[in-house]
Amino acid sequence: MAEAFYIPALNAEHLAEAVAWALPRIACELRADVLAALRDSEQKETAARAQTAIQMLLENARIAAADQVPLCQDTGTVWVFLEVGSAANGKPLAIPADIFSLVDPTVRWVWQDNGLRNSLLSDALLNRQNTNSNTPAFTELVLRPSLSGVRLTVMLKGGGSDNASRLEMLNPGDGWPAIRQLVLETVLQKAANACPPLVVGVAVGSTFDKVAALAKQALIRPLWQENPNPHLAELETELLEAINQTGIGPAGLGGETTALAVHLVTAACHLAALPVAVNLGCSAMRSVTLELTGEWA
Amino acid sequence: MADSVTQINLPVDAEVLSELTIGQELRLFGSIYTMRDAGHQRCLELLQETGELPFSLKGQALFYAGPTPAAAGRPFGAIGPTTASRMDNIAPLLYAAGIRLTLGKGRRSAAVQQACRQYQSVYLTTIGGAAALLAKKVLSAQLIAWPDLGPEALYRLEIKDFPAWLAIDCQGRQL
Q: Could you read off the pLDDT of B58-107 as tens digits, one per residue?
């Protein structure tokens, strides 16, 4: 469930205020749903090493919140995801083209003021120099006329969990068994690098470029919220059980909690295609979703 | 904690390492150096130029980590392990040149297992995502080289009661 955040106008300046409010908070405070899931897993684990690892993750969350220090040294790439819907009167909202123009300056000062880590390089191939500001941030705008109001999600994504993620264009005839196998392969090969217990975002469908975005968006859903589609909810349970039978466990030290949740989303696709993306979220899943409200909405 | 926890003083003696078992829970005390992606490139260049490890790293331990700035009265606000396998192409050369212990997260290549066996060295893992807790185990940090690399600079840390698990032993076995 998204928290309300009041802004007097839907523009770059006020969006930046919301982003500035969100960033230090998510860097230092673990999502309440992830915290609850970790506590649950502590009860379920029987292996001593797994218990120790989860206890340390819980202790880490306490220290980070109390001392306002980052949960993880990899304070990540900044993702600002804006979903724009319709106003209370049913009319679609207008959005200025420069809505994201103050995000980078905001990231720059928030990083400086809060002692977060500069993890961004100028160019992946041509110039791997640190930008010393954690910019650029990655922004995304989605127009959803059927949505009421405006929803802002800010996420910090670490490099380790993104490196362990995967995208494949599968053979449509191979169907669910191939999707299931791909997810399990990804987990078996890379989960230990991605800081388990994980939140596993799986997207099936759309096009090559869009499927990865859907898998990332799947990580936003609160862990306590069931998939609204009962068939997908069943498949999520099947995947979660299979992932937790791999024995990789918390921090890769062995155990039953390799993932806290699997979130599966599907979309339309070309008749020749079966695009699948798996985006792994780490044990320090850092995001917040805000309902932006005001007289304009 | 059901398993017994073993104290390890850094830099570590080869004899101590040979007595450890896979998966054993450890607490580290003493000095360890931070080095990750860009640092490994520079370290390798210096090693190839001079034939030995720079900054008296022979016999020392490496922590694959890039910390956040100082906070809460501690040398770093947060420090934790990065994925060790990204260093797998260079690690065997550094083990051969005298690195005794590395600390990171995740599984490693057969070449690293082989190097640990050949040079009586080890790889330890610690908990990714517990960087605020691990930062409390760092007593002090001294910048040794490469400040231009920002979080990837070479630091010597003094650590105390730092939790880790043996993930590759001196026989090259992996957890």
A: 999 999 999 999 999 999 999 999 999 999 999 999 999 999 999 999 99
| A1-29+71-158+286-297: CATH topology | Dihydrodipicolinate Reductase; domain 2 (3.30.360)
Query: What tens digit of pLDDT does each residue of A124-169 get?
Result: 999 999 999 999 999 999 999 999 999 999 999 999 999 999 999 9
Strands A286-293 and A150-157: antiparallel
User: pLDDT-derived band of residue B4, with 50, 70 and 90 as boundaries?
Assistant: confident
Chain A / chain B CB contacts < 8 angstroms: 144
Which domains, and CATH codes, for chain B? 5-168 (3.20.130.10)
Contact B129 A72 (CB under 8 A): yes
Check: complex ipTM more than 0.90: yes
Enumerate residues 46 to 75 of chain B having a beta carbon within 8 A of any beta carbon in chain A: 65-72, 74
Q: pTM for the complete prediction?
A: 0.95
User: To the nearest whole percent, how much of chain A has pLDDT over 90?
Assistant: 99
Query: What are the residue ranges spanned by the domains of chain A?
Result: 1-29+71-158+286-297, 159-281
